[in-house]
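Protocol step 6 of 9: fold each sequence in the batch and record its structure tokens directly after the sequence line. For illustration, a two-sequence batch is reproduced in full.

Sequence one:
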Amino acid sequence: MPTMTETDQLLSRITINPEIMIGKPTIRGLRITVEQILKALAGGITLEQLADEYPELEKEDFQAVFAYVSHLVEEEQVYPVKITA
């Protein structure tokens, strides 16, 4: 498991700038969003295919996407909702 320093280094690759891709999280300020990468992977595209399609991305960029999403899920809280009729 990466140390906090390694995780922080990975997370620093994910940038949010309101002037780039309407503020969606991107990889190193490129016009490639975390969402694009995740949707491609969910659609069956492999990491190797993504690396070919986006040669400007590095292995650590993909790790950063996973670290970022992992951090979001870790912070997620679920509250039970009681439904009354």
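Sequence two, same batch, same settings:
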Amino acid sequence: MNIGIVGTGYVGLVTGACFSEMGMNVTCIDIDQKKIQMLQKGEIPIYEPGLRELVERNSKKERLRFSTSLADVLDSLSVVFVAVGTPPGEDGSADLSHVLEVASEFGKNIKKYTLLVIKSTVPVGTSQKVRQRIAEELERRGEKIEFDVASNPEFLKEGAAIKDFMSPDRVVVGVSTEKARHIMEKIYKPFQMSKYRIIFMDIMSAEMTKYASNSMLATRISFMNEIARLCEITGADVQKVRAGMAADTRIGNKFLYPGCGYGGSCFPKDVKALIRTGKENGYQMKIISAVEEVNQEQKKIVFLKLKKALGTLKGKTVALWGLSFKPETDDMREAPSVVVANLLLEAGAKVKVYDPIAMEECKRRYLGDKVTYAKDIYDCVQDADAMALITEWKEFRVPSWERVHKAMKGNVVVDGRDIYTPSEIQAAGFDYYSIGR
């Protein structure tokens, strides 16, 4: 089967590489000529464990190709997946301009039945707009060519995207015809040999499933962060509370870890878009609105703890361990580290940072030269008045606290992810602050 993937960002590139690994012929398409040239040379524009090897292997076998033009390759394709960005506007609405541009290009150039699959995260009703745009282009051409539109939202976790795609816990597919269903079943069957978990539904329900799923996970995070703040006030220990909650099989232990807020490309954008969808349909999403509000406040928690511990921040040096919104990615979109660093800088502090992967991304797109970039965790804490853990990378889990203590000028440690044992850190001579304990 010949498949096209429009968009070579995180979702598009992972999707294309994984389909080609299963023996399908895939062409990844992007209007960014520089990015396509990089990929043709074997250079990967994003960091994701295992992705480089997958792209290199399938490019060599000529199952994975790259192009800057959908029109040039459309005749050879049976299915086109749309994986372009849908960035949020100031009002929280998703920008569908790139998706609709692909729909226009598709409508202008198809010559035979082709299935267009929307993998980009889009609001409920987008597929109808896409179908209408394609129909309008065909009408301008005076052509009557059969096509279908389907919805296939992605549920990839950054840092584990290859595993998630190759062994999905479920594949959600929205279709409106049996022909489209048959094609999608054929594409995903190789990934479902041991457990068949393709869930077919109508298109609008598939679109809603993506937003509802991510918003539920975000809700659990914000709920635990609220519980953590109440635990601090009352004297309870949120980690013990979490363990007691997680033992209930109706609740479980996933996404119940308190911290300094969620970030990334999915949760913040999808929560805002769901709130906006409700508003556009005359319904106030009260719970989801509160989830967003709690998360924005939680991103400031590390700064507030540093301010409380140090009294004044002016002239103080603060070391931040971790910049990406989560481990195993260089993605800093909506990352708590950016909020904390900017608040510290506004308060007159000097900020030193270290992250195993995300420092180039940070310098290029977020903090520039406003902060000092360290070569490792110990260089980062050298002469620092305080250290704050922001991202729970593995290499931060068991540092030499003796070495950290000797390097630091002060003795304040703020654990923004609750990964350390309080008694151990305190025994090493630090004033230790965590979330909800």
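Proceed to step 7 once all outputs are recorded. Observation for sequence two: DSSP finds 18 helices and 14 strands in the chain.
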